[in-house]
Amino acid sequence: MHDYDYIYRSFVKGDVTPFYEDLYPGLLVYASRQLGPDLSYLAEDCVQDAVMSSYTERKRLRTSMAWYAYILKCIYHSAIGLVRKHNSRNNYLESHENEHVTPGLEVAMLEQETLDRLHAAIESLPVKYRTLLRMSYQEGLKNAEIARRLGVAEITVKKQKAQMLMMLRDGMGDVPPYVIILVLSGCAELSA
User: Fold this and answer.
1) Cβ atoms of 10 and 18 closer than 8 Å
2) pTM over 0.85
3) Distance CA 39, CA 50 (A)
4) Mutual orientation of helices 154-172 and 177-186 as an angle, nearest 10°?
5) Alpha helices in 41-63 (DSSP H)
6) I need a surface site. Which of 23, 32, 111, 151 has the fewest CB within 10 A?
7) Is 79 exposed, middle or buried (CB count within 10 Å of its CB: 0-12, 13-18, 19+)?
8) C-alpha–C-alpha distance, residues 28 and 50, integer Å
9) Interval 96-129: pLDDT, tens
10) 191: Cβ–Cβ under 8 A, 6 or more apart, which residues?
11) Residue 188, pLDDT above cutoff 50
């Protein structure tokens, strides 16, 4: 039989050795039973969380039995939460075995892939083209304003934009040019 009062007093003083020598193994068994065979590998995590919680609450738990009951309750609730999460995950996976990604998620994945490819292509542009891109699509400047700022002819800006779009298209592979322009127009933050 364990001397709960002695273990509790030691625990409150910060000496956890009696706790780990006497109570810890039994708490692991308790947690394993609560978790079941599929999740018993998480028993130590449940017990450690309960120990930490009881240690922070040790001043409020005035008796050894209140302290021990608190630890058992923490383990129980932690185990129940893990079992519910595990069952929920399994139910979801089983109910969606024949389904692939939902249509909304497919669109989001394609959009993200396009954005990732676009940002990589932008990063590979020379600095003058990234500056042109920022001025044109992020700042929304017209060709004449860009030409004035850069001190070049408007036709030069048009030619450089065409070259920039070609470079982006080459960098993005099979993405149609109109998609690149649509994505650029919707980008709030472009690399400078």
Assistant:
1) yes
2) no
3) 17
4) 110
5) 43-56
6) 151
7) buried
8) 11
9) 655 555 566 777 777 787 778 888 888 889 999 9
10) 119, 122, 123, 130, 134
11) no
